[in-house]
Specification:
The protein is mostly helical. The protein contains five helices and no strands.
Length: about 130
C-alpha cells in the first residue's frame, strides 16, 4: 500500500482555503433558498417547478457534505457534478450565466486544495 505524503501549510493558507470554501458554499445555500422561495424560476431552464425542492435539497446536502472536513473531498466531487449540470443547463440555452457555476467549481476545489493537506498531496503543484 502506498502512503500519501502530507504537505504542510501555513495558517494563512488554511484560512484562505476556508474563505474560498465558505464563499461558494454561501452562494450555493442562497441558491437553494431561492429555489424553494421561487420554484417557477427553474422553468426557464427546462425544469418543472415541482422539481425545485428536490434540486434544492440535493444542493444543500452536497454543500453540507463539502463543509464537513472528513467528507470534504466527497462533497467537492458531488458539487462538481451538480455544478456541471448547472453549466450544461445554461450552455444548452446559450446563456452566459454558465460562468457563475464554473467559477464556483474552481473556488470549491481551490479552497479544498488550500485547506486540506491530503488534497495538496494528491494534486501536487510544482514550481
Amino acid at each position: 500500500m502506498t502512503t500519501v505524503r502530507q504537505v504542510s501549510a501555513s495558517k494563512a493558507m488554511i484560512w484562505t482555503g476556508w474563505l474560498l470554501s465558505v464563499l461558494p458554499s454561501l452562494m450555493l445555500l442562497l441558491s437553494a433558498c431561492l429555489k424553494v422561495v421561487k420554484p417557477e424560476e427553474m422553468e426557464h431552464l427546462g425544469f418543472s417547478a415541482d422539481l425545485a425542492l428536490a434540486i434544492a435539497i440535493v444542493e444543500v446536502g452536497c454543500t453540507l457534505v463539502y463543509l464537513i472536513p472528513r467528507t470534504a473531498v466527497l462533497g467537492a466531487i458531488l458539487l462538481t457534478g451538480y455544478l456541471g449540470g448547472a453549466i450544461a443547463s445554461h450552455v444548452r440555452l446559450l446563456e452566459m450565466q454558465f460562468v457563475v457555476p464554473l467559477v464556483l467549481g474552481v473556488l470549491i476545489w481551490g479552497g479544498l486544495f488550500l485547506r486540506d493537506s491530503r488534497t495538496r498531496a494528491l494534486i501536487p503543484i510544482r514550481a
